Amino acid sequence: MRVAILGAGAVGPICAVLAARRGHEAVLFSPSGAGTRGIGGRLRAEGLIAAEVPVAVAATLAEAFAGADAALLAVPAHAHAALLPRIAAALPDSLPLVLTPALSLAPLVLDGLRADLGGAPGRAPLGAMATTPAGGRRIGPDAVRVTLVRSEVPIAALPAAAAAEMGALVQELFGTLCPAATNVLEVALGNANPITHGALALANLTRMERAEAWNQYEMMTPAVCRLMEALDAERAALAAAWGVRVDGVAAYLHRANGVPLAPLAEMTAAIAASAGAVMGPTAVATRYLTEDIPFGLSAWLRLAAAKGVAMPVTAAVVTALAALTGLDLAANPLLDGLDPAALGGALDGGVGRG
What we know:
The chain is an alpha/beta fold. The chain folds into 2 domains: about 1-190, Rossmann fold, CATH 3.40.50.720; about 190-340, N-(1-d-carboxylethyl)-l-norvaline Dehydrogenase, domain 2 (Orthogonal Bundle). The chain has 16 helices and 11 strands. It has helices at about 10-20, 60-65, 80-90, 105-115, 165-175, 185-190, 195-205, 205-210, 220-240, 250-255, 265-275, 285-290, 295-305, 310-325, 335, 345-350, and strands spanning about 1-5, 25-30, 40-45, 50-55, 55-60, 70-75, 95-100, 125-130, 135-140, 145-150, 155-160.
């Protein structure tokens, strides 16, 4: 298959490597053009995957979509507000697209934009992954270091009934097993990164400010784990109020790192002792703050307000981080156009599809 991968930071090129190693043709598109500069037709991977694979580069969305059998959107959530309208205008009705990760109900926003532009009711489904198939770092213009390959990531879809179909597509393209989630809201709440990254950012902000080197799992101390557990409990209550279920942080760490289930602080200590060092951010300008808080914790607070669910610890973390950094961590242009209290049938049927 030919897969158009929209996003050329780290995750997009890593996914291109995954697809190419499975015999598929990957074409990369960078929204700014900067991410594909220096890619001369091949990508090199090191780390958990050592390979050199062919990859095509598209200068425009139309070029990326031409001849594609599927598309993957792999950009930070803060880029969605500017990019989703461009995608909605260019995406063929017949082309299925998967968002990874699908934070802040971005699939509903994209589906609404496509409906507004006259998209066919029977257009191809949208997929929504709870997190990315893999992770790592960009180490050069045409090189990536792969530090994480996920074996399993839940997926939802619009319409919701297409989740299994979209999961099979992702597995064929990237090798990731994708169990079907109830709906895109379950996926939006299912990503544990806002919890782990939010707690780590709050507890290690001065390290980030001073550009110190720090190991993330070593810094998941018992105190930080207590904060993560409190955030996790509030997220579970929010999910229950919306009629969905999410796995806890312990289950997430178990799946991602293979450590036995245990009290959270014991799990993080075991990961720190056995895994290679996973270093934390060395600047305040990190997605831990610019993505995981506005499009994670703050978005959850909006959903909580619609159901009357109290999330005092979550609100306190957002407030404290905003005060410490001077950033507006509540701003979320994706949700500004959605009324969380009126999601209704859109979670099941999508927008303008029936």
